[in-house]
Amino acid sequence: MTAHTTVLATDTGGVNGVALAVLIALFLLVSVAGFMASRFKRGESLESLDEWGLGGRKFGTWITWFLLGGDLYTAYTFVAVPAAMFATGAVAGFFAVPYTIVLYPIIFIFMARLWSVSHRHGYVTTADFVRGRYDSRGLSLAVAVTGFVATMPYIALQLVGIQAVLEVAGVGGGDNIVAKDAPLFIAFAVLAAFTYSSGLRAPAVIAFVKDILIYLVIIVAVIYLPGQVGGWDNIFGSAQEKMATVNEATGKPTGSFLPGVGQGWAYATLALGSAMALFMYPHSVTASLSSSSRNTIRRNAAILPAYSFVLGLLALLGWVAIAAGTQPIGLDGEPNAQLVIPQLFEDMFPAWFAGVAFAAIAIGALVPAAIMSIAAANTFSRNIYKEWLKPDATPKQEAKVSKLMSLLVKAFALIFVLTLDKQNAINFQLLGGIWILQTFPAVVFSLFTRWFHRWALLAGWAVSMVYGTIEAYQVINPVTGKHFGGSLAMVPGLDEMGYIAMTAFAINLVIAVVLSAILNAAKVPNGSDETIPFDYFADADDPRVQKDLAEHSSHGEPYGDPDDIPGNAPAR
Q: How does the average pLDDT of the chain come out, rounded?
């Protein structure tokens, strides 16, 4: 095993001046771009959810590709996936690669239908669609609240990604609380300001810079670094040796070089469950609905796997760090695997290129954090504020509430990161994945059929949410001894470890099927459906869609029902 002499941030006099200067320069560049983005494909006004929250639904194939790539492949992804490979190996880390490949055939099948029906009726969120499909305020609220809550820790993790970069660059140390977190406060303020002023157009523009930097850094790293640490043979040998080493805290091997006996279900269910869950998150739907046509969605499902290729290369950098002898030590002197990629870049590259890599991760946090906060705010404004608190809200009032809520969401994420253990953010994000998958039947199945009964879907959601939360709570981290220590548990009846979200989903589906059969047989009313079969195939240039838009244009917003209340329009 070839060792590499490691220089820690704490040993370099603290701040890496050159890397930090490059990081600040690129950060300022994208910040200016974020503020100027309000002019990008601008409509008459940003005072509606369609314009502020969905970019006017005008984004073409390439803009959508960069936006979705920036949305799905987050800064935390680029920090956490190789960190998991570095710490515990393939089961915890590499499953992210097949899951992002399995993901795209799934969205190819259903996302175009969601785009079409949303375009025809002006739906902004999946909860809007559920409201219109079943005329059920309760089921719509369940989908909205689940999406809103599951997104919150996800935003916090983007700030964790920025924090990791700043920590390796030597910034954020000291005992002064204000000075310690000042860089993160500044990043938060800039993010909040350009999101408020430009809406979804800001991350759409910034995503271009972010993705170019990410591709550049990873391709250079994969070509350059293996030659510096003895080649791929030494990299894989070093990783295999580390994973076979016994962890003193658990008495078991450190991790898995390859999924072994008894780990197949864990690996497969993590990959499939994560793939099914990802496009249930509000931010994924928001980025998709901003596209200009249903074919834009389909084309993106075909070309987005290019990101998965890059993610696979990035994951292997976690094992490159093992061969390089990287020691990810935080400014507090404690080991922190989340710092491994920034630390590897600082150790192995010239300071200026390390700065480019740091900027790629930091900017990679701005794009998803902006989209996530917008999506969560849209969900609150449309499905909680307007549906339950102020049904007569105008499009302008709705947009204003969404803007303010986007600020509150980011503020909550900042408080979460600064006041709680970062592991809590990770644990809650894992819990969010379990929760968001439980909205899959109500959303995806309903795009194809109304056989499922609204009360059965609600019951399945409720039971699976309780089951998933309890099971996740009972997972104890063997090192810290804390609850919510992971997302794997024994699958009932199989005696195998599996993803809790998939077990909960199976329970959800059984309840929904059985209760739907009973309620349909008893002829219990299933609400009115404001959609028709054609709605699920409508495209932007369809004359019937144009006729709808013309009919609705008289009330001040080109999309949506004439009274602006989703779900109460008569069936056509």
A: 85
194 SS3 class: helix
Query: Would you place residue 154 in the very low, low, confident or very high pLDDT band (cuts 50, 70, 90)?
Result: confident
Q: How many residues does the chain have?
A: 572
| Distance from C-alpha of 375 to C-alpha of 134, rounded to nearest angstrom | 22
Name which of 198, 214, 188, 190 is nearest 66 in CA terms: 214
**Is residue 124 a contact partner of residue 380, using CB atoms and an 8 Å limit?**
no
Residue 69 · residue 211 · CB < 8 Å:
yes
Alpha carbons 296 and 63: distance in angstroms, whole number: 10
What is the DSSP secondary structure assignment for residue 187, as one 8-state letter? H
State the burial class of residue 207 (Cβ atoms within 10 Å of its Cβ: 0-12, 13-18, 19+): buried
**DSSP state, 476?**
P
| Alpha carbon distance, N-terminus to C-terminus of the chain | 70
- Nearest C-alpha neighbor of 96 from the set 318, 308, 368: 308
Residue 561 to residue 121: CA distance in whole angstroms: 7
Beta bridge partners of 496: 491
- Cα gap 512→449, rounded to integer Å: 13
Please compute the mean of the pLDDT values over residues 165-194 and round it to a whole number.
74
Name beta bridge partners: 246.
Answer: 253
User: Among 20, 385, 325, 42, which Cα is nearest to 166's?
Assistant: 20
> Model confidence over 338-348: pLDDT tens digits?
889 999 999 99
Residue 545 CA to residue 550 CA, distance in Å, equals: 9
Q: What contacts 453, CB < 8 A, 6 or more positions away?
A: 515, 516, 519, 520, 524, 526
